[in-house]
Amino acid sequence: MDIIQAIQERHSVRAYTTQKIEEEKRRQLQAVVDECNAEGDLNIFIRYDDPEGFDSRMAHYGSFRNVANYIVLAGPEGRDIEEACGYYGERIVLEAQMLGLNTCWAALTFNKKMVQKLIPEGCKLCMVIALGYGENQGTAHKSKPLDQMLVSKGTMPDWFRKGAEAAMLAPTAVNQQRFQMGVKDGEPVIRIAGRGFYTKTDLGIVKYHFEAASGRKVAE
After folding, report:
1. Domain boundary, last residue among 68, 103, 132
2. How confident is the model at residue 217 (pLDDT cuts 50, 70, 90)?
3. Domain CATH number, residue 72
4. pLDDT at residue 152 is higher than 80
5. How far is the first Cα of the chain from the last one, in angstroms, to the nearest whole number?
6. Which of 194, 206, 196 is nearest to 169 (CA)?
7. What is the CATH classification number for the domain harbouring 181?
């Protein structure tokens, strides 16, 4: 499975089997986590075989079941880390998909009090991502028409269309898709459009999808 297929086939999964994640897959995921922490100056880590992270009323309310593994997205205090956590968190999510695993982003529906205790001093918690072998592969979310997400209309370069189509498949909070895309001075630009929940984290996720599919870096 390549990155494009991973983007197309990855959907949110909330119910998991009890199958443990193999050591080789754990090593491969850790290598990606290490790269993400180095590049993004973050403190991401993965908890394995620890069901307490999703053992709470909020987790049950969110229909999570049998979550024993999860990715913790965290970074230095005093810094706006939401976009970086979205960007690098999705990089890990897609690596997990290519390894045959399933995931689901969680902003509130986990045991925040328990997970907060795991965060190193001087760091702040952004979100967590459920990880494991899903009972199913999830279902695709509905997307807005691509034309609604473009700053300018007209013919799109092939690389931009590939990136834009991948961006439309990115998971966003409550599927709000509050972003717009365009080209400025020959470079891709993606911006938050309107107000919504966790839009900075969503922006990071969307940017990673676009860059992975188009091979072009999104302008800051």
Report:
1. 132
2. very high
3. 3.40.109.10
4. no
5. 30
6. 206
7. 3.40.109.30
Distance CA 66, CA 203 (A): 29
- Specify the amino acid at residue 43: N
pLDDT bin (cut points 50, 70, 90) of residue 87 is very high
pLDDT tops 70 at residue 59: no
Distances (CA, A) of 39 to 10, 25, 84: 24, 21, 10
> Do 205 and 170 form a contact (C-beta atoms < 8 A)?
yes
**Tokens linked to 67:** 């979550």
Q: In the numeric block, which tokens belong to residue 175?
A: 């599927």
Which domain, by its residues, includes 158? Answer: 146-214
- Does the pTM exceed 0.85? yes
The structure tokens listed for 82 are 């939401």
Select from 132, 154, 175 the last residue of a domain: 132
Distance between CA atoms of residues 29 and 46, nearest Å: 9
CA distances from 27 to 40, 114, 119 (A): 20, 25, 21
